[in-house]
Amino acid sequence: MAIATNLGFPRIGGKRELKWLLEKYWSGKIGAEALLEGAAAVREQNWQWQAEAGITQIPVGDFSLYDHVLDWAIRVGGVPAAYQNGKLVSHLDRYFAMARGTQKGADLPAMEMTKWFNTNYHYIVPEWSADQAFHLDAAPFLEEITAAQAVSPDARPVVLGPVSLLLLGKLKGASESPLVLLDRLLPVYQELLAKLNEAGCAWVQWDEPVLAWDLDEATRTALKHSLAHLSDHFGNLKLVLTSYFESLRENLPLAFELPVAAVHLDLVAEPGQLEEALQHVRAEQSLSLGLVDGRNVWRTDLNRAVAFAETAAKAVGSERVLIGPSCSLLHSPVDLEAETAIDAEVKSWLAFSRQKLAEIATIVRAVNEGRDAVANALHQNAEAIHTRRTSRRTHNPVVRDRAAAVLPEHRRRGTEYGTRQSSQKKRLKLPLLPTTTIGSFPQTSQVRQARSQFRKGELTDAEYQRYLEQETETCIRRQEALGLDVLVHGEFERNDMVEYFGEQLEGFVVSKAGWVQSYGSRCVKPPILFGDVQRTEPMTVPMAKYAQSLTDRPVKGMLTGPVTILCWSFVRDDQPRRETCEQIALAIRDETTDLEAAGIGVIQIDEPALREGLPLRKGDQPDYLAWAVGAFRLASSGVRDETQIHTHMCYCEFNEILPSIACLDADVISIETSRSQMELLDGFGEFDYPNEIGPGVYDIHSPRVPSTQEMVQLLTKGIDVIPVERLWVNPDCGLKTRAWPEVEASLKAMVEAASEVRTQL
Ligand code: GLN
Ligand code: ZN
């Protein structure tokens, strides 16, 4: 009998209960007990839903108050010395100090956070020391296991394996790989296995997600060594080795060689893996088939999934088949039933986490009892899959013809940068070291309240527009008073830089409650890109025109780039991402040319997600970069020489993609650099970055007001690296999360810093 499994469930709760609990706890409105009780209730609800849906092996240990990597660092005793501070009295104080920093009692920064593989989930980067000692600290985990077993006896603990845990962290003050600590860490895992045996667990989900990467010999050896060493202590436990987000490729033989009872395959990333796996699976091993997409919102083609499961069952026997999602459902929204506003056709194509559980159960029943037992479900599913495939909303000939007619010259500006630069200088008449901002100004509670009143119908369209215009006008006046050279309208009309465009473009729907965790209590609600993308009317032109009408200084038109819209949406999976990206690029191109026609001389097209979209495997990266850059160029090249195109990117490992960034051929790029004291700019200097660049001169993530002098120093450093004629002055990123007083004080100091440096030239 095939077994229904799950790799992980969203933690935030169907109504983002965990978010509200955390935020109340942090602000002191509730105490630790209420937080822990509330969190336990969310966890319990998750288990109930999974058990009721027919999942036998429900995951336990996938839940976390903030982040599961942080949890595992703590479970093995990896609390950095700074946080072993006597002033952090309770376990929770320490936990949240590590997660988000503290200024209560102890004054400690948050630990580093970074993206979880190629998802938009962020994990806390464990910090290992050269003299790291490990010990098991797993009592709460073991209690959770007992609680989950009460809901479902086959509850399956999720363990982050030692090799991935070490490699996801950083070894402080040493250039060696954290894997030097492996032998010291393994006894802790050995002890954990003993506890899991005692708890009567049968299966254990052994996550080694590094298997999705290109692995060097040392990591391969570490994987073999860790499991060989631990296998003496498995007792009655059966390990299912899990990785996701990519196919195993050349790591596949290694995965099956390891002493594990089953290997999980992300068959959504690469269905073709099954065939290879069937050749490598050993006689006693099971196969875990990830057939339901754990990180996207589309209904699974169940007939196809069942066929895969049947192939596996036929080859190895159904008792050796586990069925589940491709990866943890952490990356999917909770429940489609909450979406009352998505039209029926599109809704019939979607499945959120709870619906995905039902899909898993259906596939399992089809394998175990035969397709007839679930004939109805399969039939309904086939219909939905068919309408999605044939709907005019997913296949709009107008959009397709236009994409097919794109020519190489559509991806090239009229002349090269040098020529454009002089036309732009003549038109814009900016001083050396022009000052500007990245786009958004504070989204105050009044702004958010007005938006919500408008949504509820408490403000009319005209009233809301009037309000937005007032805010914009105030913002323009404040920028003029500060003496900024290139202004922005402030983005008050935007809830989010991607959703705002998703709401206006054809081919998208926006969900009401499709939240997924980004980090800690922060959730994002990606728009759903289901069909062919088309712009029906200008999206930003009226506001840009209005803002420009208020002032003689240039006001930047503000757009989100095609790659970022792609990366921060739930994207259709029925065509290659590059094709979808092209369609978005054409829509944005129309917007840039309309802005130009409306008299806007500077247009910024933000691409903060360019780096994030990079595939996990090196070999796949050049292809991605080529089409991503091509899409940006398509979006930005329709304008005349004298129209200045800006782009913006937030902090990322710029260096490895510098040639591609240069290839975007934006006239000006602004980047986040202040926290690295401009070191990041060195890469641009060494590379001889050809166009203009605005390295962020202050960190907008903190309310701290920077001094003029520190920004003068940073700018002086900048001039050493980039010729002054090509240097701009701006903050690191948008200011929407900040409050006006600190924004005005910081920008005043920034403008002063620019004029001071100008006088020194
Ligand atoms: N223009 C956007 C803003 O200023 C850019 C945000 C971003 O880079 N993530 O908010
Ligand atoms: Zn940014």
TrEMBL record:
Residues that hold 5-methyltetrahydropteroyltri-L-glutamate according to the record: R16, E17, L18, K19, K115, N120, R522, C523, W568, E612
Top enzyme category: transferase
Keyword annotations: Amino-acid biosynthesis, Metal-binding, Methionine biosynthesis, Methyltransferase, Repeat, Transferase, Zinc
Residue ranges annotated for the Cobalamin-independent methionine synthase MetE C-terminal/archaeal domain, each copy included: 433-755
Cofactor(s) listed: Zn(2+)
Catalytic residues (positions): H701 (proton donor)
Reactions that this protein is recorded to catalyse: 5-methyltetrahydropteroyltri-L-glutamate + L-homocysteine = tetrahydropteroyltri-L-glutamate + L-methionine
SUPFAM superfamilies associated with the record: UROD/MetE-like
Positions that bind Zn(2+): H648, C650, E672, C733
Family according to the record: Belongs to the vitamin-B12 independent methionine synthase family.
Reported function: Catalyzes the transfer of a methyl group from 5-methyltetrahydrofolate to homocysteine resulting in methionine formation.
Protein name: 5-methyltetrahydropteroyltriglutamate--homocysteine methyltransferase
Native species: Blastopirellula marina
Taxon lineage: Bacteria, Pseudomonadati, Planctomycetota, Planctomycetia, Pirellulales
